[in-house]
Specification:
alpha/beta, 6-stranded mixed β-sheet
Length: about 270
């Protein structure tokens, strides 16, 4: 049984130091409550809206060994906790930044993996570079995959992770209230069609004209909801995942076994 903490938080735009203090306090609270994993939303260290941050995105971005990495590596080791959180990752070229999800484990001295957002939403395209990898993260709790917000809306991304045998898919998001119904559809569908647990953590709060509604949740591999947070404010909620359920569900609902991959490949490659 794996206990997961979903940290549905608000953040202060551009105030990384304050946001990191808040993240650290919730990591300690989750550890006190015997959680194995804590997951934070998209760009949790800085706030979300790239048009409001503008060129500060570069100043707030980080590479390995910098402030966010040092703090969360230390907390993961000290607390025995896997930490997943969104941050601005500095790219290989000057001025290049990624909207990334870092994964810190108790054994690591730095993040184990930073998953870069593949599908950029709206004005994100003006500021962020696209990611191009779906890397499975092997941990003591099983195989994990991470998606960032809009990636949830593309079945192909989750399917790639599923074909690589992930047990749990995490989604970090800054999903707006206007598309709340799409959030619920996508969460259930990605879990059901791939026979995986899906942990989706959404921001709550206001940034400019954008309202982020929360609704963080865990979906079981049969598409049923395990737990869901409020859409009225911040929350730190917990849900338990029993990985033995994966085998049962995949036998009853054998979507993965019945995939027709050569058929799909043929049609995807048509002009």
């Amino acid at each position: 049984m794996i206990k997961i903490a979903l940290a549905q938080i608000d953040t202060e735009l551009g105030n990384k130091r304050k946001n990191l203090r808040y993240i650290a306090s919730l990591c300690k609270e989750a550890a006190d409550n015997k959680a194995d994993v804590i997951c934070f939303p998209e760009l949790a260290t800085t706030g979300y809206t790239p048009d409001l941050l503008g060129t500060r995105l570069w100043q707030l971005s980080e590479s390995r060994g910098e402030e966010t990495d040092r703090l969360l590596s230390e907390l993961a080791g000290k607390l025995g906790l896997i930490i997943i959180a969104g941050f601005i990752e500095r790219g290989e070229r000057t001025g290049q930044v990624y909207n990334s999800a870092g994964v810190w484990t108790p054994e690591g001295e730095s993040w184990l993996h930073a998953q870069r957002k593949i599908h950029l939403w709206a004005d994100e395209k003006k500021w962020f570079s696209e990611g191009n990898r779906c890397e499975v993260i092997t941990t003591s709790l099983g195989k994990l995959g991470v998606m960032v917000c809009y990636d949830l809306g593309f079945p192909e991304v989750a399917r790639i992770f599923a074909l690589r045998q992930v047990d749990i898919l995490f989604v970090i998001a800054a999903w707006s209230e206007a598309e709340a119904y799409i959030w619920d559809i996508n969460c259930a569908a990605r879990a059901l069609e791939n026979g995986v647990f899906l942990v989706a953590v959404n921001r709550w709060g206001e940034e400019g004209e954008l309202h982020l509604f929360g609704g963080s949740q865990i979906m079981a591999p049969d598409g049923q909801r395990v737990v869901r947070a409020t859409d009225k404010g911040e929350a730190l909620i917990y849900g338990n995942i029993d990985l033995t359920q994966l085998a049962t569900v995949r036998m009853i609902l054998p979507y993965r076994k019945d995939l027709k991959i050569p058929f799909y490949q043929h049609h995807y490659n048509e002009d």
